[in-house]
Design brief:
Elements (H helix, E strand, L loop, with lengths): L1 H15 L3 H18 L12 H16 L22 E4 L13 E4 L17 H7 L13 E2 L6 E4 L7 E7 L4 E4 L6 E7 L2 E3 L3 E3 L4 E4 L6 E4 L8 E7 L50 E4 L7
Antiparallel strand pairs: 1-13, 2-13, 3-4, 4-5, 5-12, 6-11, 7-10, 7-12, 8-9, 8-11
Length: 297
């Protein structure tokens, strides 16, 4: 309801515009309380709501990483999610986010606008930030991807926007795989393992490649002596807009092919749990966040 959105907007605006001496004082009091609760007086896990426990730990962690930054209290506004390897969620434009730990693949539409809310020494444009947010409430839909009809080793992550989609390709030791040219430009990054591309290009984790429109299909190969699979993510224009695997919370929230929905309470600022490591929100563009399909430390 609009009344709830307006209330959330006023609360967030008050939090962001709070005088530094007031926010600093209240942050110190909150940290003292949480440290005591997490010590020998901490209640039994079954006696404390899971959200409160995770929120408290997130606040303490952020306060250690960014001493004195009132943004450490931001989890009180947010969902705190733990995403398993291979899972993702879609976040529409103007929804802030923060990654706490781990590694992810983030794909977003072209944007030259980053508005920061906290947890950074850089400039924070509070006025524009408060105006531009959607204040959407409701938990994000967790997307496990949809297997390709031609090869189940290709998982497709398709958001409900035309700008992009992501394919994750997994090739086990001793296997080969041909990825057909989609007819659009693409970008590829090696997320895990090693192998060969077109018989002569060595693929290793962290390497990125541009896939031109006029290029032939890609042929991957992994030697039988390798200890684990090669996992590659490819991003290009959305060619399956009529078959999204993720949904926009402001629109239809019903299940779609290839996705499953977590029973997580919602908020305007979803976290991507196990993966995380971005400390400011990128806004004004739709985003698809996902963990690489491998365990993260």
């Amino acid at each position: 309801p609009e009344t709830q959105r307006e209330a959330l907007k006023k609360l967030f605006a008050s939090f962001m515009s709070c005088p530094p001496e007031v926010s600093d004082h209240n942050l110190k009091l909150l940290l003292i309380r949480l440290q005591v609760e997490q010590s020998q007086w901490h209640p039994h896990p079954h006696e404390e709501p899971a959200w409160e426990r995770k929120c408290a730990r997130a606040i303490l962690r952020l306060a250690q990483q960014f001493p004195g930054d009132p943004g450490a209290m931001s989890p009180l506004f947010l969902n705190y999610l733990l995403i398993a390897p291979g899972e993702s969620f879609f976040m529409a434009a103007n929804e802030p986010h923060a990654y706490v730990a781990g590694e992810i693949i983030e794909c977003m539409a072209c944007s030259d606008n980053v508005v920061r809310a906290g947890l950074t020494p850089k400039y924070k444009d509070v006025e524009n930030l408060v105006k531009m947010l959607t204040y959407t409430m409701g938990g994000p839909s967790i997307d496990a991807g949809a297997p390709s009809v031609t090869d189940s080793r290709i998982l497709r992550y398709t958001p409900p926007v035309p700008e992009f989609e992501v394919l994750v390709v997994t090739i086990s030791p001793g296997e080969t795989l041909a990825l057909e040219n989609p007819g659009v430009h693409g970008v590829m990054i090696v997320a895990e393992g090693s192998g060969k591309l077109d018989d002569d290009t060595i693929l290793r984790p962290g390497k990125a490649y541009y896939w031109p429109l006029e290029c032939e299909s890609l042929h991957f190969a992994v030697g039988v002596e390798k200890r684990g699979p090669l996992k590659v993510a490819v991003a290009h224009k959305n060619l399956h807009i009529d078959r999204p695997t993720a949904v926009n919370r402001d629109q239809d929230t019903q299940s779609v092919a290839g996705s499953h929905h977590g029973s997580v309470p919602g908020s305007p600022m979803p976290f991507l749990g196990i993966p995380p490591v971005v400390t400011h929100p990128s806004l004004e563009a739709p985003i698809l966040d996902m963990t690489p399909p491998q365990q993260t430390p």
